[in-house]
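User: what does the whole thing look like in 3D?
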Amino acid sequence: MSAVLDVLPYLVAGWVFLVGCYGLATSRNLIHAVGCLSVCQAGTYVLLLAVGYRDKATAPVYSDIKPGSRPVVDPVVQALTLTDVVVGATVTALLLALVVQISKRHDTVDPDELSELRG
Amino acid sequence: MTRRARLWLLLAGGAGLAVLFAAACLKLPAFGGDRHPYGDRAVRASLARHTANTVSSVNFDQRAFDTLGEMTILFAAVLGCVVLLRQTRDEHRAAPEPAEVALPVRRYALIVLPVALVSGLYVVAHGQLSPGGGFQGGVVAATALHLLYLGADYRALERVRPVGRYEVGDALAASAYLVTGLAGLIGSAAFLANTILPYGTFNTLSSGGTVPLLNAAIGMEVACAVVVLLARFLDQAVEIEGEGGS
Amino acid sequence: MADAVIVVALLLVAASATVAVVTRDPVRQALVLAVLGVVLAVLFTVLQAPDVGLSQLAVGSALTPLLLMLTVRKVRRRGQEKGRGR
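Assistant: Here's the predicted 3D structure for the full assembly of 451 residues, as structure tokens:
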């Protein structure tokens, strides 16, 4: 059990990222592709937090525990993830705005039809 | 490139990445290990500056410059959305018809709305003490406002939400963050250095020096940004119609 | 005990991410993404990151699916208008 758990979180992070990439590349609808991109992002969050985890530790918040009384997990990776969750959502919104523009200009949201139009 | 060739290329690249990634994972320190040099130093620095929530301390004190960058991305993304989703000349607005809302939905939404709004603000205000902060609380507060769309209708939402003011608020919050950073230059400290304010008593609302100020600026920025974004998307989805539209 | 909870949460994340990708209809995908957001929030909380869990809950289960649905509505409405015009 513990040998599996040593690497499982990293592997899950890799799986989530790769499965998102697969969806991105095979998507027939740009809105679906943006959804897949947010799956890719989720993979990076899992990886970062897995790196910072410590066994039998608690959250790095000292409002209800005495400093030094218990080990805490790494707050640096949490701060990185936290900002990216929110900023990533606004970037997703920007991509969706681009999709809306594309559908206005070309009347399609299928990436294959779009490249046919250009070529 | 044909669809088939693209799929093969993807599979080859994905397989290569998967193999390299798995090999790297096996050499990583085991999950849950006890060695976190950066984390330990961050915790020590945070406690030295009387900030109970070390994550907020990392975000708004130790890595405040990084957060400035993130905030700029957020601001630029919102700006991009506003430009892309503006009403163009060949489009017109059609007022949406008031929709019937089921009574339980209306009642539930109108009860939850103030609760959600207040908890959003609470989460922003207590960012330096308990889990939470500007990023989370801003999203909660802004999303809460949109329960009005569920509970009443689109017109009611538009009345309590003058988008122009939120756009101004977004810009003001971004500049407030910058000004607080510049204030760090006074007293020959560095940009965004947390030295101008007293650190206060540990575990009280005014502890942490500039952390609560930067936190509040981010909270306002995120809340305004989300309101503006949702407003633009709702406009496009509900109101604005193309030329051929009925 | 804590380990078992972490393993279950990780597997749930992997499963819901896979389902989110293979769901090709954007509206259904938005719903699955909301589920993924909640599962991720649970995982982050189990990993002792309540800050991240909170923001993931707000963003992943409400904001992102909402934006996706609004985009779908806009794009489909355009499609209908065109269909009627022709």
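In plain terms: The two ends of chain A are 54 Å apart (CA to CA). Residues 2-118 of chain A form a domain with the Helix Hairpins fold (CATH 1.10.287.3510).
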